[in-house]
Amino acid sequence: MPRPEPTGLRAGEPDMNRIVGSHDLLLVTLDTLRHDVARELAAEGAIPNLARHLPGGRWEERHSPGSFTYASHQAFFAGFLPTPVTPGPHPRLFAARFEGSETTAPGTWVFDAPDLVTGLARAEYHTVCVGGVGFFNKRGALGSVLPGLFAESHWEPEFSVASPTSFEAQVARAEEAVAALPPGKRLFLFVNVSALHQPNWFHLPGATAGAGDSRATHAAALRYVDRHIGRLFAAASSRRPCFTIVCSDHGTAYGEDGHTGHRIGHEVVWTVPYAHFTLDACETR
User: Fold this and answer.
1) DSSP label at 271?
2) Which residues does 87 contact at the CB level (< 8 Å), separation at least 6?
């Protein structure tokens, strides 16, 4: 049978050929965030700063291309963001020029580079990475691969999974990077948020290290991120409109079917929350 030809982006989807070059871009990966936890907190009104930007106030359910951070981000930076759970093919926002691609559509921004970061740099974007988990710590060869794609990259121990104030520190560094950029220079800002990743027990008042992480501490970590993400959105949109993608790279298991953690083929790992939206210029919290 002949392969289906994509006719365009889904109804209401942006034309990225109009956005790239006119907007700044922000990609936030909420590392390890489970879709079910994100959905529940949005429905409860517990993450108002995120929910106010979600289309219809809800996360979109998608499937990640990888089951752990490194694999997922390699795919993301090649243009393969989490895929809608409904039958496809699903045209993509970004795609490397690749003969025979079934998901490159008229509204897809196509780049002639091995990765999106390099493609945007060639389109005269300044690329900035604020890393979180160990794959962004630049402490060894493996931890240098992903941040090495960017013209400017930042990681400090205060950004890591072990820090109870990791996201506040990351946001402060992102604010500094944006403020230092010449006003006319377009920006691609990427932030890998480590707060959801284990250990996250310290985000829930009364929890202890001995009890370990749980679905409840995972939810508390997302509430913590929500309290500070307005500052990140304000910084990213301080110079011009900012097209923003917020998603998880994978989920994690807390005892489901006997599993703990990720890098496994379980539904709670593959299913992730996703949203994209445009922040108006100079939008505040």
Assistant:
1) E
2) none
Contacts with 71 (C-beta within 8 Å, 6 or more apart), sequence order = 65
Residues in the chain: 285
Indicate the pTM of the whole model. 0.94
What's the pLDDT tens digit per position in 132-185? Answer: 999 999 999 999 999 999 999 999 999 999 999 999 999 999 999 999 999 999
Helix (H) or strand (E) holding 253: strand 253-254
33 Cβ neighbours under 8 A, 6+ residues apart: 196, 218, 222, 248, 251, 272, 273
What are the start-end ranges of the E strands in 67-156?
83-84, 94-96, 109-111, 125-130, 152-154
Encode pLDDT of 19-70 as tens digits. Answer: 999 999 999 999 999 999 999 999 999 999 999 999 999 999 999 999 999 9
C-beta of residue 213 within 8 angstroms of C-beta of residue 199: yes
